[in-house]
Amino acid sequence: MRKNPIFESSSGPCMFEQVNLLRKFRTYSDLQSIQIQMFETLGLNYAVAVQECDRVFAEHSLLRRDPSQHYELFASLKKTLTVRRILEIGTFEGHFTRFLSYLYPDADILTMDLPQRVASTGEKSHDVLRHYNPDFENERTERRSQLRNCSNVTQIEADSALLCRRNDSFDLIWIDGDHKFPVLAWDFINSLRLLAPAGVIAVDDILQVPAPGRSMGGDEGYQCIQRAVEAGIVSSGLIEKRIDNSSQFTTPEKRKRVAVVKSTENKLW
After folding, report:
1. Backbone phi and psi for residue 198, each to the nearest 5 degrees, phi listed first
2. DSSP state of 78
3. pTM of the model
């Protein structure tokens, strides 16, 4: 019997199989519902977080809305933590720093990134951005300069490894610097040491499977956190990084997530 080329192809699965695959993705990728459950598992209220984000963006119309869900995460943490000091590792253009400044107006925020001259030559991800936007460096400098209007923000241009010399503590720490070993491991360990007893660390762009050759790193963040969990140093959970349409057809193990980490305060002796 002659095969129908519409439904069967020697180069891949038939159309019915492809449709079933898409249906499977749609079945488990109602990402908003998944996200609500993830927040609830962490003791956080997603609906309240969205309302708080809406308020901040409405009051500060020049602030760019980002689809990454770490905005909602930090908004939800406002309802559960007393936040006096925040550390951000990885200022980049300063969009999230400004958001934090408006979200936590009474908190002192320290944001840290490499000096511009170092970042411009040492980060492959920035090379990619320059490929698509040759004026990337100037635009980043301009946007980061807007942080001068945020009175509760202190900017430091230095290697984040130097955090090992600090002895203060922070209630919230956001790790969004270099996503690869060994820098990420340094940032995570330094953050654990600087975390206040009831504080929270959030780590961006968590992948649970290796991604060889990826300029932004692979599962290094997940490995760091899992090692700390296994040692009884921390407890952790995950939220979806994005819940927009671009994430709907990505399998769960390949979707980026944001990790939420708390110290267990277990002592060695």
Report:
1. -100, 15
2. T
3. 0.82
CA dihedral for 116, 117, 122, 126, sign (positive or negative): positive
CA dist 131 and 141 (Å) reads: 17
Fold (CATH) for 15-263: Rossmann fold (3.40.50)
Alpha helices in 161-265 (DSSP H): 183-194, 220-230
Domain boundaries, the chain: 15-263
- Mapping DSSP to helix (H, G, I), strand (E, B) and coil, where does residue 181 land? coil
Q: What is the distance between the alpha carbons of residues 108 and 155, in angstroms, rounded to a whole number? A: 11
- Alpha-carbon distance 23 to 3, whole Å? 25
The pLDDT tens digits for 146-190 are: 788 999 999 999 999 999 999 999 999 999 999 999 999 999 999
Count CB-CB contacts under 10 A for residue 26: 11
What stretches of the chain show up as alpha helix (H) in DSSP? 15-28, 31-41, 46-59, 70-77, 95-103, 116-122, 124-132, 136-145, 183-194, 220-230
Is 75 in contact with 52 (CB distance < 8 Å)?
A: yes
Measured between alpha carbons, how far is 221 from 238 in angstroms, rounded to an integer? 12
Supply φ then ψ for residue 97, to 5 degrees: -60, -45
For residues 42 and 260, the answer to whether their CB atoms sit within 8 Å is yes
